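Next comes this protein:
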Amino acid sequence: MTPVVLLPLPIILPFFTAVLAFLFRRGAEGKWISVIGSALTLVAGIFLLADVLTNGPQAAQMGNWPAPFGITLVADTLSAIMVVITGITALAVSIYAVSDVTRNMEELGYHALFQVLIAGVVGAFLTGDLFNLYVWFEVMLISSFGLLVLGGKRVQLDAGIKYVTLNLISTILFLSGIGLLYGTTGTLNLADLHYAVQDADPGLITVIATMFMVGFGVKAAVFPLFFWLPASYHTPSFAVSAVFAGLLTKVGVYALMRMFTLVFTQDVGFTHTLLLWVAVLTMVTGVLGAAAQTDFRRILSFHIVSQIGYMVLGLALLTPLAVMGAVFYLVHHIVVKANLFLVAGVANRIAGGTEIEHIGGLYKGAPFLAFLFLIPAFSLAGFPPLSGFWAKYVLVKASLDLELWLVAFAALAVGLMTIYSMTKIWGRAFWKPHPNGTVPTLASLPSGERMALLLPIIGLAIITIIVGLFPEPFVQVATLAANELLDPTPYLTAVLGERP
């Protein structure tokens, strides 16, 4: 398939699926339409990644308007990887939602909103200009808000207000930065901006870069802009929490990685030093917040914040090894974090809650679920030979190579604190007896529901194990993505053609 067909396809398919799912929302067909649509999106992403790995970055100009004047879709290795991992997450969560999402939520349009969210995420990864990145962020914001408040519980509405308020502040900063950048350079095409900012006033560009850093920092939930996340991610259905945890903050991280390797590279001494401090403080505050929580989902929510710090750390160090580690960590964390929220959902179903002080007995009654929890939990904490070990190892080594001893110590210490949090969940929710004497079992779930809940958890756990045991091909692809970020010539050529 040509780029003009292959690039829009992962965006078109979720939108088409959303329309069909909405039309059939009152019947059983809607949920299966969502599953099939997610599978097709994954297949389209795999074809796109294969094409990029074979032929290099690909670009398509919508409506045959030449860049930088029209809408550009572009995929390099990082973009294509993110589309594939989005497809994997979407498929896993859509299967899980068959059992997790209530009939009332389906009739209110859950599956349509879910697919629109996936389309927004994919669109953000594939867009080649800043204004359309803003558009895709708004698509994500609207659909995610709808999913967050679906059901209308008081706690959901309260979380939704906090979520939207802070994200609207981020949007205002982002849009203001777009206006200033366009007024300064006369373009919003990312490839064209790479050249245009070199002729602009360096001081003004640094100010604009800082605005983008704050705007995207809210989306990514970095220190000190993360408070909306643990206040909201524990309130919706577990399927919604899982897709939020896996994907939403990663779009903000992706935007930071794209902008601060392709556009804002004139004042690395200031911008990336600032990112370095933000990364360390994000890691530390996130893991301390997790240590103070006693609710399964709240602990995991704070750990999202903590792990985002590792990804930003790789960008801040800006060496080939560090950026490769950031890309590897990005992919690893999406799989692991979504899986942990799915496990929390099953624990809630059979044990009667997520407050770990009020549940227990999961190891005795559901040893298979306990095993499935340990895989992503150990990976998140960085146990070898799981995927999280390699991700943390690369970033710590990159810090040591630059003789940033304090940064390396912080990364290792946060890993130890992560072990503490996972051990706390294990000891109280899985190991100790249930307070009321019951023994939670998977057999208490109907067989069809049990299969829908466990299959995606098993699939994501297998991915974590494969990446951990056979990291070399994944490291090679992450290295290729890092090289393209640090030397964007193939990206620029794909969009703008050869420059004289």
In short: The mean pLDDT is 90. Strands lie at 58-62, 71-75.
